[in-house]
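Service request form, structural biology core

Requester: graduate student, group of Dr. S.
Request type: structure prediction, single chain
Budget code: on file
Notes: please return the result as structure tokens.

Sequence provided:
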Amino acid sequence: MKSSVGQEMSFLLNIRENVLLPGSMSEMHFFLLIGISSIHSDRVILAMKDYLVGGHSRKEVCEKYQMNNGYFSTTLGRLIRLNALAARLAPYYTDESSAFTE
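Core staff response, request fulfilled:
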């Protein structure tokens, strides 16, 4: 059996394996995730929404919102990690306490 520190390290390393594909997220899921993120720029939020909800390509989104591809990758990585952590937290909350439905 792994130690709790070992389990935590394993989880943090496995976050890299989580992927958010273009068009893979509902609008509700996206806005809930943005709501708990530190992302506040309207331009960045709209770019991420076009990619994750709308299914637009990375190239299209970067051109439309004049966003550097490196910054896009960094922001997407932050959302991937946050999504993985939220998924890990979800079992600690009961269905009765959920205020939102999709």
